[in-house]
Amino acid sequence: MKHAASMGVGLFVKEGSLAETKQELGYFHFLEHMLFKDSENRTSKQIATEIERVGGILNGSTSREYTQYYVISIKDKAELAFDILSDMIYRPLFREEDIKVEKGVVIEEMRSYEDAPDDFVYDYYFRNIFGTSPYGRDIIGTKDSVTGVTRKSIRKFYEKHYFPSNMVLSVSGNFKWDEVLRLARKYFPFENPKGKVSNPIVLPSPKKHYTKHLSRRKIEQFNIMLGANGTPRNFKDVTVTQLMSTILGGGMASRLFQNIREKEGLCYSIYSFPSFYRSTGLFSISCATSKEKANQCVGLILKELDTLVKNGFTERELEDAKSNQLGGMAIGYELPENRMNNIGLQEIYFGKYYSLEERMKALKSVSLDELNERARLTFSIPKLHLSCVGDMSESAFQKIPTSL
């Protein structure tokens, strides 16, 4: 990235919460927290201070299928970025006092989700649509599993999952390849412990439950999650589905925004989004409205979907969506953080890197027939899943429709 003054380095572990056993719920997330604590060479304060004093960003995240740690900094501080990320990943201390403190932090994080309806409804939705499948478990774990973490159990978990062939190191910025290799070899040894082989878990496609669920709370808004069919993460289906989501609920010009918010004034925001995994996927629609308008709001969303299934999209909508996606790709491609994420995730899921030109070519090649077929496959189900949080009686909730 010859134009870039900043750089990004990310370490991706090829596993996330789906790889946990029932005795390890929330361990990937808890371990992510612990790697920001004291290492052999630095205290947690020193780790934060050394990055922030040069204007850098240090962060991490845990998902169902991968875990990520990354540093964004000015290009001149690339060696520092590699050094700190390596120190965190390879030399954690797992001190008893740090584990005790972090248990409290994670419990408070759980409470913050519980207190925020727009966060809670998302986890509630996954629990309900995937049921007892590991896909339905909260990534953060449970209070019991988190409070049960010990120094021995978290170190054993770390050694089980954190080794070089189970990781991807992704780098973006104004580098030459030799410089990347030098830094990688210096700070991220490639040798695997004896007998360690990367074999990321791929679960069978889980059954989805197209049912209705209400978590009753005395709050002002009624939070709605509608769930439809989806596809596993493969390059072609991701390209087509993202185009569909752009037209349906991807921005202010989308069908849902224009017809539910702008024409009817039923909500402040409404959007759709796909979720892609190795063996399954979801297509979701989210909005919040008053309990008095919830039935009408869901009814109009279903009407939009019914019209879509019957009549399809238009050529103009497809061309506008392609233009939108092409512009977003080009803008994102110029940002080191986005490029670093893109490299890492493509390597994990596709085993190769699709360049900007290849992605643009694939996008431009999508036909209207392919797009409309994707819509039919997504929404041609007897009824959609509905998970809601709000102050409504169960009898009133059951009257909300879910069939097109």
From TrEMBL:
Residues 149-324 form the Peptidase M16 C-terminal domain. Residues 6-142 form the Peptidase M16 N-terminal domain. SUPFAM superfamilies: LuxS/MPP-like metallohydrolase (SSF63411). It comes from the Bacteria. InterPro entries: Metalloenz_LuxS/M16 (IPR011249), MPP/UQCRC_Complex (IPR050361), Pept_M16_N (IPR011765), Peptidase_M16_C (IPR007863). Belongs to the peptidase M16 family. This is Peptidase M16. It comes from Leptospira kobayashii. The gene is pqqL_2.
